[in-house]
Every structure is written in C-alpha cells, then in structure tokens.
Amino acid sequence: MSKPLRIAVIGGDGTGPEVTAEALKVLDAVSRKEGFAFETTPFDLGGERFLRTGEVLPEGTVEGLRAYDAVLLGAIGHPKVKPGILEKGLLLELRFRLDQYINLRPVKLYPGVETPLANKGPGDIDFVVVRENTEDMYCGTGGFLKKNTPDEVAVQSAVYTRKGCERCIRWAFEFTRRRANPKGKKLTLVAKTNVLTFGHDLWWRTFQDVAREYPDVQTDYNHVDACCMWMVKSPESYDVIVTTNMFGDIITDLGAMLQGGLGVAAGANLNPDPGGTSMFEPMGGSAPKYTGQGVINPIAAIGAIAMLLEFSGQPAAGRRIQDAIEQVTGTRMKSQSAGQMGFSTREVGDLVVAAL
Ligand code: IPM
Ligand code: MN
After folding, report:
1. SS3 breakdown of the chain: % helix, strand, coil, rounded to 5?
2. Domain of 174?
3. In the chain, how many H helices and how many E strands?
4. 301 and 279 in contact (C-beta within 8 Å)?
5. Confidence at 1, pLDDT banded by 50, 70, 90
6. Tens of pLDDT along 261-274?
7. Measuring from each residue's beta carbon to the nearest atom of ligand 1, which residues come in under 6 Å?
8. How far, in Å, is the centroid of ligand 2 from the Cα of 210?
9. Which is the most buried residue in 4, 15, 138, 196, by most CB within 10 A?
10. Given 222, 241, 259, which residue is the final one in a domain?
C-alpha cells in the first residue's frame, strides 16, 4: 500500500471546526471507497489560542506544517481579537511562508443552487479565478508619518515582481490548457492597466510574453471594474481569469455570490512546486454569530477537501466528492444559506457521505 496522505488540520475559529469535521467525515468515507489511507493531525491555532497564550504562529509551526502533504483550514477570525492580527499573523503568514503563490477559486454554480442572476444556470456560471497569492498590497510594506495628528500620512504600497507574476501567469496558462473547456480554452487577464501604469504594466507585458508559449489558449484582457460588470452580465464569457492578489480577493467574493454564497465556495492556496505544501479552505469566515448552532453550510469545506484530493494525488476521490456534492445540492438541500438548508451542518455531511 502506498504511503498515507498526511493532512494537517487547522479547524481555527468560530464555525471552522464544525465545517472541517464534516469535511473529514467525507474524507474518511471516500478513502474507504477509493482505497487510500490518510492521517490527520490537528493544529491548535486561531483566536482562542491567541487569547489564551498570546501566540499567533508559535515557533516551529511553519516548519512542522511543511512536513505534511496538505493543510485543511476551517476559518480564522475572532470577535475579541483586533482585525488584522490573525489574518496577517496566521492566514497570510502561512500563505507567504509556505509560498502558496496560487489562490485557486472555482466559481461554479451547482445544479439546484440558487444564483441571484436572473436567467442564468449551471451552464452559464462555471469559471475559475487564479489569484496571485504572495504579492501586491498584501505584502505589508508601508507606514505612518505623524500618526494621530491632523498631518498624518499613511503609505501602503503594492509590490509586484517579474518572478511573482510570471509564475502565476504561467501556471494559469497551464491550468487553462489542462482544464480544456469544451466551449474553448480562454484565459482573461484582469487588472487595471489604465491607472496602475507601473505594476500592472509589468503584469500586462509578462502576460503577453508567456501567452506566446500557449498558442492553443485564447487570451483576453478586462479592467477589473469592467470584469465586475461582465461577471454579472455574462458570466458565461469566462473560462479562466488570472489576476492580482487584491483584485482576486474582491472579484472572488462577487464570484462566490454568483455561485450561491460563501456556504458553497471553496478555494485552494497552492504551492505547485515539487515538495510544496498547499492549503485548502472554505472561502467563508468564522461566522461568530452562528458558532455552535450547527446551522452553517459545510459544502464549502467539503469542496475544499475535494480540491485537496485533486491536488494531492487522489483526483478520482476528489471528483467523486464533487459528484456527491452536486447530487446533494441538486436534490436535497432547500438553500445554501446558514439556517435555511433544511438540515443541520452534520446532516448535510451525512447526505454527502450517503451520496458518495
Ligand atoms: C480571503 C480573505 C483573506 C484575504 C483575509 C481574511 C486576509 O478575505 O481569503 O479572501 O484577503 O485574502
Ligand atoms: Mn477575501
């Protein structure tokens, strides 16, 4: 038998542990059906740990995580912790230090799921956003001058490197080629070249250079504001989008709404290099007001486990979970919103297991 798949599990804050429990339940079931072994190790990280011990990311944690094949993350964010501490100190720190330079976010409307877009169905809403995940305004360069005075100055800069955008763009081209959308392989660069005439010029030039190596992939360009418009008006025009970190953050929340909400939207932080450790997460936050009630939708976390398997050498198991999700959302659940599913968090997990 091959080596077991080793997964580090960071349940995290709020409803994070509730949804990761369902994802692990589905993983356990699919591993029996597909005949592979796995091991999980819980990591106690997040707001509660920080409040208890003052530690956000204890010494040695990142090195410890590197030894795993993948990380499953529930949610980070605690009402008693000032915004930024956990997000920057834990989530972004892990993305950066594990060099997870791709943030992959499929925008796929499952059958039976309601979208706010009139007259659009699963055939129209099925594209993928490849978000750069290590640079841009997320790099934390900046500072204050004369803080808390009427003359205060705040600088927050965006950093883009040739290496950073090239590796992301190249991966996006490879992904578009592999995805082989029957409607046509198309990669759209989303940026703001009319205003960000330095950083996004670098992105534009790099995109043109790399595109020459992929003559089979059709290319397009949208300014980010226009992209928001097209995502709502004609989502069917997209196959794969590649974009910068901050714009990717924003348009994938819009994308999540098109596909039925944060209850179903999953994402992957990938380090695609040999030996890289990737991290998979539901896109939703820790939802403090729903914590402990068993009403939150675990489909996004289950989708994250499906992506984890897809990128960790068990693609058949990943597809099997995707199919099961589609059966459950398509035939059983009343809604994807917290508290309106017609089932509890656990019952939705059970339905997916039954559908495998
Ligand atoms: C996301 C989140 C994070 C981000 C926050 C929590 C730092 O919004 O994963 O999209 O901005 O990347
Ligand atoms: Mn976000």
Report:
1. 40, 20, 35
2. 115-259
3. 12, 12
4. no
5. low
6. 999 999 999 999 99
7. 87, 91-92, 249
8. 27
9. 15
10. 259
